Amino acid sequence: MASAVRPSTYHKHDVVIIGAGGAGLMAAVQLAGIADVAVISKLYPSRSHTGAAQGGICAALGNSEEDHWEWHMFDTVKGGDYLTDQDAAEVLAREAIDAIIELEHMGLPFSRTPDGKIAQRRFGGHTRNFGEGPVMRSCYAADRTGHMILQTLYQQGIKHNLNFFDEFQMLDLLINDGQVCGVVALQIRTGELHIFHSKAVIFATGGFGRCFSVTSNALALTGDGVAIPWRRGVPLEDMEMFQFHPTGIYKLGVLLSEAARGEGGIVINSEGEAFAKRYAPTLADLAPRDMMSRFIYQEVKEGRGVGSGKDGVYLDLRHIPYEVQEAKLPDITEFIRVYLGVDPTKEMALIQPTAHYAMGGIPTDLDGRVLLNNTEVMPGFYAAGECACVSVHGANRLGTNSLVDLVVFGRRAGRHAAEFLRTAELAPLPPNADAFARDQVERLLSKGSGPTEKVGAIRETLQFEMFDKTGVVRNERGMREMLAILDDLKLRYQRVAIDDHTRTFNTDLLEALELGYLLDISECIVAGALGRTESRGAHYRDDYPDRDDQNWLNHTMVWKTSGGLRFDKKPVTITKFQPKERKY
Ligand SMILES: Cc1cc2nc3c(=O)[nH]c(=O)nc-3n(C[C@H](O)[C@H](O)[C@H](O)COP(=O)(O)OP(=O)(O)OC[C@H]3O[C@@H](n4cnc5c(N)ncnc54)[C@H](O)[C@@H]3O)c2cc1C
């Protein structure tokens, strides 16, 4: 049959970066002037999800009160329920300080203290003196911090004349004899395939919250860059560790950032009780997200929920003066007005936990090098940001620790890649480099015969069932059901057909491809969650409600093999802080 897709266009660069969010751009900027860099993004760069981050980016600058990187490291480890690799947490906390200053020097317009320093505020789980009480550690630009980071880094990319390939969707990773040598991408505007041949590849493709029905994540967060290497034999780490943020707008999942609680917002049940302090006497509403989400789950379970399904609670901002709301929380209050139709100075906002952040992903070392097993790296292949798992967030990420992860580990990946490129050779392309991507696209574009399935229907079932069975609380029965559902959905996916058979901006085609990634990733999430027979951080099983340090100071690892999923463990790196019970 004649190919429906024209021959691929060939490009050669030293390094190809997939993703133009905070992690990808930070890596790219490090390589400017050193290497020939291509940045490929399925979205226009400034539409990346980093731009949606409201709350802040933390570093122990100590601008508003005493603070130390050791305290930040401790909070990161404790917040991660001791699944955090402590060498990574140390790098994060130490290098955060310098990374923030670097962003400031690039021109990032941070909010300021009266004496002109970068302003800082409180955020859940960040404490002074190893847990004594909240500390002001989160730097911010009003509640548009991520937006400012993204704009600042993108401007740097433009300034340095980096090669941006906007609206190119990567479909495959090219590997020849164990050496990464590029990617294949579809140009969304033309429907044509492009081969990018390079010595190094950096993945910075963000998260995969779209596995769940109620999520804060943008539509594009379908985990492409996590599923694609997995299909090529790279393992995935700690996939069961998915964070649910307590304050999503009811039913919609749109995030009301933790800044709302940082500035004094409190959650309230149907009896008008501010219940968080009953569970977490020291930090109350500033307890970490996994705990807050479970507090809400418990209130709902005990019949104190609100909303049409009695499965939500309220967020109360009424006691925060209008001027403070407008100055410090303008986006949050706007969302409440727009999506819930209420005035936050007069009424409470209806909220529920929303699928928010993937702690797990592609395993990397401290320089962003992708790991094939517990020690062996894949030469030339890097990952950073939410798609990666350097395991700095362990079982639960603290608020404001992702943006800082992007800049610290994005920077390290970029710098290491620059070193690597000094001696690296360009590996030849594998034979028929674009064949796999081409087959996928052609199959979907061809009008097959026989009964067909719709993308939307499969995706809706997947998202609803994942939220229900692999959400805030899990157990073996629900997850076994989920595996059976996944088997059925995967069979149905093989018969998927799309209505649009044209080439230009074929979003039907893209959504069908993305659904394939969501199905693969969901299977890995369930595999990790079933394998981990304990409760820790964001992973709570009511059939194994306790943390089990005897058996589970370990990361989970899953591989795709011809015989199905292979599951293994990897020990946690513990340096300074011995695991203790997590009390707040
Ligand atoms: C609503 C919201 C608020 C948040 N608030 C905060 C906060 O206040 N503080 C904090 O620390 N963290 C926050 N987070 C988390 C944080 O924003 C994200 O973890 C982080 O921005 C992820 O950055 P990234 O660079 O890894 O990926 P992203 O910014 O998501 O970028 C991913 C990039 O990959 C590209 N891409 C993906 N797939 C493909 C493909 N197949 N082909 C080509 N390109 C592809 C996209 O086009 C995009 O450019 C928030 C998250 C959300 C959803």
CATH topology of the largest domain: FAD/NAD(P)-binding domain
Question: So what's the overall shape?
Answer: globular
Question: CATH superfamily assignment of the largest domain?
Answer: FAD/NAD(P)-binding domain
Name of the CATH class of the largest domain:
Alpha Beta
Main beta sheet: 8 strands, mixed
Q: Name every ligand kind in the structure.
A: flavin-adenine dinucleotide
Work out the oligomeric state of the chains in this entry: single chain
Q: How many individual domains?
A: 3
Low-confidence stretches: none
Tally the beta strands: 20
* Average pLDDT: 95
Strand content: 15-25%
| Shape-level CATH architecture of the largest domain | 3-Layer(bba) Sandwich
Q: Which class of secondary structure composition applies to the elements?
A: alpha/beta
Which percent bin holds the helix content? 25-40%
Radius of gyration: 23 Å
Provide a count of the helices.
Answer: 16
Q: How far is the N terminus from the C terminus? A: 64 Å
Task: Walk me through this protein's architecture.
FAD binds at residues 19-24, 41-56, 224, 386, 402-403. Pathway: Carbohydrate metabolism; tricarboxylic acid cycle; fumarate from succinate (bacterial route): step 1/1. It is a peripheral membrane protein. Pfam families: FAD_binding_2, Succ_DH_flav_C. Residues 14-403 form the FAD-dependent oxidoreductase 2 FAD-binding domain. Strands 1, 2, 6, 7, 8, 9, 16 and 17 form an 8-stranded mixed β-sheet that branches. A 4-stranded antiparallel β-sheet has the order 11-14-13-12. α1 (22-31) runs parallel beside α11 and α14 packs antiparallel against α15 (507-531). The chain contains 16 helices and 20 strands. It has 3 domains: 10-241 and 359-423, FAD/NAD(P)-binding domain, CATH 3.50.50.60; 245-353, Succinate dehydrogenase/fumarate reductase flavoprotein, catalytic domain (Flavocytochrome C3, Chain A, domain 1), CATH 3.90.700; 435-541, Up-down Bundle (Methane Monooxygenase Hydroxylase, Chain G, domain 1). The radius of gyration is 23 Å and the shape is globular. It starts with 8 loop residues before the first strand and ends in a 13-residue tail after the last strand. It has helices spanning 22-31, 69-79, 86-106, 145-159, 224-231, 259-262, 276-279, 289-301, 322-328, 330-340, 401-423, 435-445, 455-469, 476-494, 507-531, 549-552; strands spanning 9-18, 37-41, 57-58, 120-128, 133-139, 163-166, 168-176, 179-187, 193-203, 236-237, 242-249, 266-268, 313-316, 349-358, 362-363, 369-371, 377-383, 388-389, 554-561, 564-571. By secondary structure, it is an alpha/beta fold. Bound molecules: flavin-adenine dinucleotide.
